[in-house]
């Protein structure tokens, strides 16, 4: 095999996405910090799946169409640092192959080099020993071999061999990896994608669930997942399809379609996005649903399951319902805002937060929009762009409040065309609160940005959670189930109880310059226990003022702010 055409590229990319999807939990486990925020695999998967959905929808692929789908899909679906970097690798690769009819080893090598260059440019301070290093190692090897090897598969095998070698050296580049005994998770994720792509080139058919992921802003309750009894099924066929509308799908058409489908079935979900409409309905007449849908455009991804034969099938995913509700609520709010003709204000504020209490705190100090997200559910670039659309302001400040969200926010700032977006690089919720409090309306946007960044430097943050594995970090021996305190620059304490870990963290954080300590207690801490900790802290640290706030955040029992 000496060349890759558009059809083969499409298959290879989908196979790479499928391989990542299948291995995402393993990649999550490679995260070195022993806290329940292992999300590298999840973020990379959500990113590539966004692109895979666009690529899979191309029926007669051209190289330009596949390249555009890979680039635009991953860009808007990018989540977390690893996801943003992966999207930039895809973006650079796609730019190089546009305009090509076929890809040979020379073009493939050039695309890999450009992919690496694009990704490095997207990261303010690239760190070696990461996904970037692995990508660069493979691109350099590819450039070296492009004039020597003409066979695509042989070329790829040699490049992969080099990638694995570089990946195995990452613990020598990052001491934290060596200490934990793992390779870089992002680099491993990239290798999984590349190996999957090669499997696709060799003819392996990917098994890929292309259902859209739930937005980071949607919180999904556990609900009742019990099986359906056959006798309880009124409408026997679970019917799903995509309408590729022949014209912009209007609100009246959406209403018309819903009304018709409700007449012939139930468990209805219709989610419209410009010229693409996702439909789910339970009916006894799937053909009638298809016929009605064909009046609006062509159909794709049609699926019909007989629920009477498969009586354990769920009626519909709770996430789909909630996602549809969320979309409808946001659209209604947008239309109401527009109808009021509210004059656009100069400054607006978007913050990322997890926990009802923290969200209310942010709203109370001026946040216009709170994106539900954080450690284990990083909002995507598209989530942030959608939030910006909802804020009626010319200039918008975004507070990511998590180092893993900053790159996605910066990418959103570059993509937004109508409004000016400033990213305040807050890495923790306490930093975000301090930054927003220090906004001054009389100053310019840039002056405010500089001032907020300066004020954040005086904030120290501690986070109390539990260890999910036994390991060693920062010279501390950690056993699964231990309570650990994580500071801005590493581990603060390892203890057996939550209060002990919190008090030890405060002891490490409070110095002679400290004036105010704020304890934000999470959803798994009772008010009584939080009050008890407050009293212990006040007794142990009488020299500082200590406040208690109900944060309601998941994952972390306490967030501790020292100013």
Count of the separate structural domains: 4
CATH architecture of the largest domain: Alpha Horseshoe
Unreliable runs: 33-37, 213-232, 310-319
Q: Can you give the mean pLDDT?
A: 84
In angstroms, what is the radius of gyration?
A: 25 Å
Please characterize this protein's 3D structure.
Strand 7, helix 15 (406-415) and strand 8 (420-423) form a beta-alpha-beta unit. With 563 residues, the chain is α/β, with parallel strands linked by helices. The chain folds into four domains: 6-201, DhaL domain (Serine Threonine Protein Phosphatase 5, Tetratricopeptide repeat); 230-323, Alpha-Beta Plaits, CATH 3.30.70; 343-456, 3-Layer(aba) Sandwich (Rossmann fold), CATH 3.40.50.510; 460-562, Hypothetical Protein Tm841, Chain: A,domain 3 (2-Layer Sandwich). The longest helix has 24 residues, at 6-29. The protein has helices at residues 6-29, 40-56, 63-77, 80-97, 105-122, 131-145, 152-173, 175-180, 185-201, 251-264, 286-293, 318-339, 356-364, 381-390, 406-415, 429-437, 445-456, 498-509, 527-540, and strands at residues 237-245, 265-273, 276-283, 297-306, 345-353, 369-372, 393-399, 420-423, 460-466, 471-473, 476-478, 483-487, 490-495, 516-521, 545-550, 558-562. A six-stranded mixed sheet has the order 13-12-9-16-14-15. A four-stranded antiparallel sheet has the order 2-3-1-4, sandwiched between helices. Helix 5 packs antiparallel against helix 6, helix 10 (251-264) packs antiparallel against helix 11 (286-293) and helix 16 (429-437) packs across helix 17 (445-456). It contains 19 helices and 16 strands.
